[in-house]
Write the structure tokens for this entry.
Amino acid sequence: MLDILSDFTLQNVMIGATLLGIISGVLGTFAVLRKQSLLGDTLSHAALPGICIGFLVAGTRSLPFILTGALLAGAAAALVVVFLTRTTRLKTDASLGIALSVFFALGIVLLTMIQNQGNAAQGGLDSFLFGQAAAILRSDLYVMGAITLTAVALVTGLWKEFKLISFDPSYARTLGLPVLALEVLLTTMIALAVVVGLQMVGVILMAAMIIAPAVAARQWTNKLGVMAALSALFGVVSGLVGSVISASATGLSTGPLIVLAASVIVVTSLVFAPETGLLPTALRVRRDKFSLKSRLVLGTIYRLAAEHGDPAYPAEQAMIDAFHRTDTSAVLSRLEQRGLVRSTAHHPEPTPHWVLTPKGLEQAQTPLDQSGETQ
Amino acid sequence: MDDRLVTAGLHEPGLAVHVEDLTVSYHSKPVLWDIDFDIPPGVMAAIVGPNGAGKSTLIKSILDLVRPTAGHVTIHGLPYRDQRRKVGYVPQRSSVDWDFPTTALDVVTMGLYGQLGWLRRPGRKDKDRARAALARVGMEDYADRQISQLSGGQQQRVFIARALVQEADVYFLDEPMAGVDATTERTIVKILHGLRDAGKTVIVVHHDLQTVRTYFDWLVMLNVRVIAQGPVAETYTAENLRRAYGGQIALLDSAATLTPVD
Ligand SMILES: Nc1ncnc2c1ncn2[C@@H]1O[C@H](COP(=O)(O)OP(=O)(O)O)[C@@H](O)[C@H]1O
Ligand SMILES: [Mg+2]
């Protein structure tokens, strides 16, 4: 294991994955909260024609050209979306969908065209579809690092502005904030994050890196700052886990593994997060149901006692069962554990009987909304 | 000082809000048509009209959130963009996502972002001001509560506190009493009356015709055009209501009979 970690290529991949995790986690937080998940998807798919054009212009697989092309293509796609929503009746999601398909289709056409040229330098251009982490160079990391640092600095500096335009953009405008400029800035940074992720995970899966960590983080916290930090952490963890697994099991490509790791974090969060998770919610519902049921059973014993004018009236369990049309023994033993009822023998009947304890009597007399048991 | 000097360059400085020839279209269909209206300072004014009459659009176009096809607006004699600081806005509650990860106090603090300027984060003083505004709407105990865990009425009060903290001169509120409980409605009306009594101008899109005469002293009736405007006593008449609502609601007749005919 340590051998793998000291491997130079793997070090590069891990640094790249860390940077990608940070930038996509932080920006994804705002994308998800602004309901712009599809924007990340569009920007990343739209990068493909830009990659091809960058390649064609440079005549070789030159990274600066390719990344610039990707960025410009993302910007063009964003402009198309703005144009479509402003001038037609199309809603934003429809416009995003159209831009995504058209740009991606164009990218695929260009890609096949380049490949059919049989140009020796075209080798591996299709690696931008799903990423090729092992091809990352130290010099690429400097570019990725600079972009990530800029994004984090901008989000930190413009924190309250980004928060407000995400929560209530109209109100932000009445306060005099340049909302449009801030939105363009956020979108540009997402396009930059896509550029950072191109080599790692590729244009197809990049959107998942923007959405997944943020969605997972939202499950665990109600604070925006914590959400952004947690989202970055989830992004980094998926990046590192994906890189290490890929390095240990040869033949598995890094990008998809990173996205799979992120997906595992999402599923885990959706199931286990204390407030919103499926499991805790189900347990809470069960507990509430149980406590409501025990209220009702306690009430039944109380009414039987009241009808017989005897607070210590032993109620036969079969009667309670019949009244509630279900087996109440689980509920009764819970009530017994809490000292609210006591089982008793009632000769000559051999069946179980239950009596209210003084505490149970008191509780049965408390109105439901004051008992503190519901809710 | 010479009065003319002071008012030089001002347009209708005696009015809190002055709207002239305002027309707004969505997709070339006019939703507001040739609107002229004035609101004097220090009144509590209601804007009423049927659903889709353009009430929200009117407020949004006054606040530059919607671009009008024609017309102009002044606030205390100057265009809105020069008077931003003097204007507070309470949007319709449904206009934001209440699942956003933030607390009541944080939302109220947002009212100060315009004054804070770039790069500055809200400090203790700002938080104290926000807390005081929350206390004014009776929400001090909910400062740290996640906003999704507030009732509709409590969310509305948080929105009002956010506008209060701006310490504006003119307030626009879009249906602040829609879907809130009776206690919240009483609290809101009391706060708004307090603002008016302190000389502020309060303009409220209001949906409940029954309470217009008890809450408000000025009225604008709207249905794409301005149907009537002026002091409530003169404007709230059966005839005007019928013209605004087109007799579409049976309730109208009972509301109109509340008007003493003298
Ligand atoms: N963003 C929009 N795009 C297109 N039409 C709109 C938009 N907002 C409002 N409208 C239309 O404009 C009219 C006025 O709407 P609005 O100002 O919300 O009315 P009110 O607040 O009086 O109910 C309605 O017919 C509504 O459908
Ligand atoms: Mg409205």
Summary: Confidence is low (pLDDT under 50) at residues 1-6, 256-262 of chain B. The CA atoms of residues 42 and 197 of chain B lie 7 Å apart. The pocket of adenosine-5'-diphosphate (ligand 1) is lined by residues B 26, 31, 49, 51-57 (CB under 6 Å).
